[in-house]
Structures are given as C-alpha cells and as structure tokens.
Design a protein that fits this description.
There is one protein chain. It is built from 9 helices and 10 strands. By secondary structure, it is α+β, with helices and mostly antiparallel strands. The chain has 2 domains: about 70 residues, Orthogonal Bundle (Arc Repressor Mutant, subunit A), CATH 1.10.10.10; about 170 residues, Chorismate lyase-like (Chorismate lyase). The strands form 3 sheets. It has a 6-stranded antiparallel sheet with strand order 4-5-6-9-8-7. It is elongated and about 70 Å long. InterPro entries: Bact_HTH_transcr_reg, Chorismate_lyase_/UTRA_dom_sf, Tscrpt_reg_HTH_GntR, UTRA, WH-like_DNA-bd_sf, WH_DNA-bd_sf.
C-alpha cells in the first residue's frame, strides 16, 4: 500500500479517537516510534503526513521538545446582543460593569492589553464613520488573553476630535467595566443606536501570528457602528478565531406586544 494511502488511514483513525474522547484535550500522543508500532508501519512519511493533516485541522498541536498534543479549546460563549444591552444600560445609569465588560458578558476571566495609535482613516472606516478619507482617527486596540492563550483582538475607531472631547488620550484613561458607550455618553454624545455585522473568513498571516491560529481555522469578524440619531460616532471590529467562541442570542419574541 502506498505511503499516502496509509497516511490517510492513520489520519482517519487518529481523528476518530480524538473525536470519541480516547484522546482528550491536552493529552499527549504516544511517541512517534510508538505510533509507528501501533499502526504497524515502517513509513515515517505516512505518519508525518497524517499528523500534519490533523495539525492543519486544528485537532493537534506540536510543542517542540515535548511532543504532539490534542489541542485545547478555550471556547467562550457569547450573546453579543445581551452584551450590547448590558453595556448600554450601565452607561445610561452612569454605573460601571463590575469585573469588566468582557468578563460580565462571557463569564470568562480575561487579561487585556490596551494600546493607542493615531492613524488616517481607511476608505472603509471613513465610509462607516461618514468622514473624509484620511481623517485622523484614534485606534484603541484591545488584546484579550483567556487561560493564557490569545482569544481575540478588538479595535475601536474614533475621530481624534471625538476622542479628545470624551477624554480618551492614552490607555491610562481606560477603566475596567467602562465601555465605549459610557465614555461617549459621559462626554455628551447620546448614543441611541447600534448596527452589528458579522462575517466568517480566512485569517490573514498577521492574524494567524497575533492570535496563534492553527491551520484550517477561520475567524469571525464583528463590526459594530454606534450612532447618535443618524450620525455614526464610533466603529469597532473584533477578530475571534472560530475555535474559541460559540455564539448564542436570546431574544424575546413578545417584546412590544400589548
């Protein structure tokens, strides 16, 4: 039997054992020599091909100097609509969301690194914010880490003059539990509407590196635009690897009934 065919057979069997729970997330696979004995093959290339296939699918991860492991998945459940309502309600009350917005929305304990940069608006962001191309913007970047692993990267785009008006000049101005809506409303910008959009796509090389995304894994990209009446005042994006999030929406179907 050709090595490529044997490699495919090994991949099928290992995949089945992982999916059945024989090998659990975090388990280390037997050594390569032991796997070759288990599968009664002398072809190292067949085994390598099978393992590379499962690494590309995101089922396995290679830890150099240690071995090959079943990949752990830090899956966070999120209801983005409920989270948006929570952020808005807290902003209207002038209250902070305890423990931070991300933690309150997901129940996950996250560490966040925040950086500020000033850039000229891209064509897409300029269109969403209804500003001229190359308008000066403040970009606030939030990098979230859950259980020691990168979880998502979010970016908020504000016209520079808006950021100055609401007192966002450097990362020290950010406070846990105070979201963008609260900052805007405290600065006299009465946000009253939000538009959400989602797409699934192949990650860029930069996103693969920044979020440690395994081969074969897509990302979800969220877009949110906040409005005061018909005027867009802020645009934000979030990139989340598809193997780290589960979305759910809880909507009342009778809301507004009399």
């Amino acid at each position: 039997m050709r090595a490529v065919s044997r490699g495919a057979e090994i991949a099928v069997d290992l995949r089945r054992q992982i999916q059945s729970g024989k090998y659990l997330p975090g388990d280390r696979l037997p050594r390569l020599a032991d796997l070759m004995a288990i599968y009664e093959t002398r072809s190292r290339s067949a085994l390598d091909r099978a393992l590379k296939e499962l690494v590309a699918e995101g089922l396995l991860t290679v830890v150099h100097g240690s071995g090959i492991y079943v990949r752990r998945r830090q899956v966070v459940r999120r209801d983005l609509l409920a989270g948006l309502r929570m952020e808005y309600a807290a902003a209207r009350r002038g209250a902070d969301v305890q423990a931070g917005l991300f933690e309150a929305m997901t129940g996950a304990d996250a560490k966040v690194d925040i950086t500020y940069d000033y850039v000229m608006a891209s064509e897409q962001i300029a269109r969403l914010l209804d500003v001229d191309a190359e308008h000066r913007l403040l970009v606030r970047t939030f990098r979230y880490v859950v259980e020691g692993a990168p979880h998502q990267v979010a970016r908020s785009y504000l016209p520079a003059e808006t950021a100055q008006r609401i007192g966002l000049n450097n990362p020290d101005d950010e406070r846990p539990g105070v979201g963008t809506i609260a900052h805007l409303m405290a600065g006299g910008i009465a946000v009253d509407r939000a538009k959400l959009a989602f797409e699934s796509r192949v990650p860029s090389a930069a996103e693969v590196a920044e979020l440690a995304i395994p081969g074969g894994t897509s990302v979800f990209e969220h877009w949110r635009t906040l409005y005061r009446g018909c005027e867009p005042v802020e645009v934000s994006t979030a990139i989340v690897p598809g193997d780290r999030v589960a979305y759910e929406i809880d909507v009342s179907l009778t809301e507004g009934d009399r």
